[in-house]
């Protein structure tokens, strides 16, 4: 990893006559730098590099995301599944480089909110924070739902009673169990980061072992001639030009972005990480790299074992696409098939808990800098975690899931498709924030030109194109679940409503808390000179 060059910064507008005053008693200037940033009372130095990587992998939830994405992606791109995963990995890695640069210069738990505010001002910064919060609340609710589904699937397998699995279809049982999962995850998240790390080591370790074992067993069946539809691994699997259509590539990329989403949690812990300037960025890039390696290995094993046929456990069979691992586990793992259900359950449960980290710390930062009510700036005096923000995140996620589950299961799953737009929105804004904030340092070195201009710019442009393309395509009434209102696709409506609600709340906060929007707590700035 290259050594970061720290940047001094100058505001783009005159400083106020009075220096920035932290909004909480526990606050202090971060590393003494004159950035308008201040600490928020979190437990400094409680997370190391390995812990950050584990929490990052946990938030991505590889077992959960891969079982739901294998089938739909194969339906779009066929055997070029590995190529699409690599294509989806590229913008994520490029954006991660931009995140790393921003974190090196401005380690702050508000991440996208803080950095976009520093680069573009309070309005854009507020919406970047909203995009992150909206995305994570949607994911939190759906992760809880997935945990419920695999909880009952595992019980049905353990007791050899298929009727148990049917309980997930009962809305009352489903929602009640979901609320229990959210409550338990909230308890862990409310406690100190050491508790979170201990829980994640076990849950992440278990799911990764099962996934690697699944891939090894799949290739073993292929070698022994006992695979369902033995398919020779070829270099063409890594060639996106063989997909056939740009539309299919975009659709596949939209899915692959979802399977990589969540690595930025390593950055939101920067005020609690040992070596806050360097460790979070290093953890982010290592997390994305480890996850793509796991995805490629497991996906290739599944393709080689099952092929892309539309019968049986072929990955092109629409009947198994929503939960590919459940159907492949028996033929590949035999009597150990229940381990895969347990792995997906642990994956979703682990991610449910670790995903609380990002919205809670973003809300904390927004409250700390005066963009939201000051209650959000409260830190637990016992555990040094954003207690109030964590509880609010849990309540909103629980209510969102319960309402959506009773309204329509199609609506609930369309929110996941909408998530792709939210990811492109706030990741893209943050990437462009890196480009703009470091504009005076672009050509001071080749390293700066790549990591501060080329990488985040290309990554941001890719995400912007995907955002616009998805927004236009989702207007089609057949997009997503096929639900529509007045002939307009529900995914498009959900995306516009989520962003629209953010704008309304932002305007209300401008009326109630004008000081943030006058840049009295967090000013625009630009990295000016390398130290």
CATH class, please?
Mainly Alpha
**Amino- and carboxy-terminal Cα gap:** 19 Å
Total domain modules:
1
Sheet-strand content, in percent, reads under 5%
Main sheet: strand order: 1-4
**Helical/strand content category:** mainly alpha
Tertiary shape: globular
CATH architecture: Up-down Bundle
Beta strands, count: 4
CATH fold-level topology: Amino acid/polyamine transporter I
Q: Determine the number of helices (DSSP H or I, runs of at least 4 residues).
A: 19
Fourth-level CATH superfamily: Amino acid/polyamine transporter I
Helical fraction: 55-70%
User: Which quaternary structure do these chains form?
Assistant: single chain
Mean pLDDT metric: 85
> Mind describing the biggest β-sheet?
2 strands, antiparallel
What features would you describe in this structure?
It is a single chain. This protein has 531 residues and is mainly α. The protein has one domain: Amino acid/polyamine transporter I (Up-down Bundle). Strands 1-4 form a two-stranded antiparallel sheet. Strands 2-3 form a two-stranded antiparallel sheet.
